[in-house]
Design goal:
mainly alpha; three-stranded antiparallel β-sheet; 7 helices; about 65% helix
Length: about 190
C-alpha cells in the first residue's frame, strides 16, 4: 500500500492538505501515519498524474487553501487497488528490535522500566481509540452494525486498532510478569541457606 491509495480514498469529499493531516491524526494513525510534508508532496504528484484536481478556496483561518478532490481516473485506480485483494506486508516495529536486544541493558530494573513504558504507551493508544469508539457509539444509534457501508468499513479498522494496541499492551504485561518472576527466583536462589 502506498500513501497514494489512502489519499485517493480519503478524498471522496474535497479536502485540503491540512484537513487530510487532521484526518490522519484522528482516523488513520493507528495503521498509517503520515507527515504533512508527505501528504502535500503526494497530493501534488497525484494531481500531476490526473488522479486529483484542486481549486483555491477561502479559509476560515488564514490565507486561501488548496482543496483537492479525486477524479474519475483516481477513483478507478483506487478500485483497481482494492480489487487486487489484501496487501499484507511485513510490519516493522522498532520496539520489537529494541526488546530483542534489551539484554544489553545489564540492570534488570532498566529492562522492566523499558517494558513498562512500552505497555503504558500502547495502553494509552488503545484508550484513545476506545474514546473515539465510545463517542461514535454515543453519537450514532446505528453503531456499529447499522452503519452505512463506508462507515462500517471504517469501524472495522478502528476495532482492529483497539485489538492490536490492546494485544501489544497485554504482551508487554506478560513480559513484565515473566521478568519479575525470574528476578524473584534469582533472588531466592542467591539467598543464603
Amino acid at each position: 500500500m502506498s500513501l497514494d491509495h489512502l489519499l485517493l480514498g480519503a478524498l471522496r469529499e474535497p479536502a485540503s492538505g491540512y484537513d487530510l493531516k487532521a484526518t490522519f491524526e484522528q482516523v488513520y494513525r493507528h495503521f498509517w501515519p503520515a507527515e504533512l510534508s508527505q501528504i502535500y508532496r503526494t497530493l501534488r504528484r497525484l494531481e500531476a498524474e490526473g488522479l486529483l484536481t484542486s481549486r483555491r478556496a477561502a479559509s476560515d483561518i488564514g490565507p486561501e487553501r488548496r482543496v483537492y478532490r479525486t477524479t474519475a481516473k483516481g477513483r478507478a485506480r483506487l478500485r483497481r487497488w482494492l480489487q487486487e485483494g489484501p496487501q499484507v506486508s511485513d510490519d516493522r516495529h522498532a520496539f520489537c528490535a529494541q526488546v530483542f536486544f534489551l539484554d544489553e541493558l545489564e540492570e534488570p530494573e532498566a529492562r522492566l522500566t523499558f517494558l513498562r513504558a512500552l505497555r503504558d504507551e500502547f495502553a494509552v493508544r488503545r484508550s484513545q481509540l476506545e474514546a473515539i469508539e465510545a463517542q461514535w457509539r454515543a453519537d450514532d444509534p446505528r453503531y456499529p452494525d447499522g452503519l452505512p457501508p463506508a462507515e462500517l468499513m471504517q469501524q472495522f479498522t478502528l476495532a482492529l486498532g483497539i485489538e492490536k494496541f490492546g494485544a501489544i499492551a497485554r504482551w508487554a504485561e506478560t513480559c513484565i510478569a515473566r521478568l519479575e518472576a525470574r528476578q524473584q527466583q534469582e533472588t531466592a536462589d542467591a539467598a543464603p541457606l
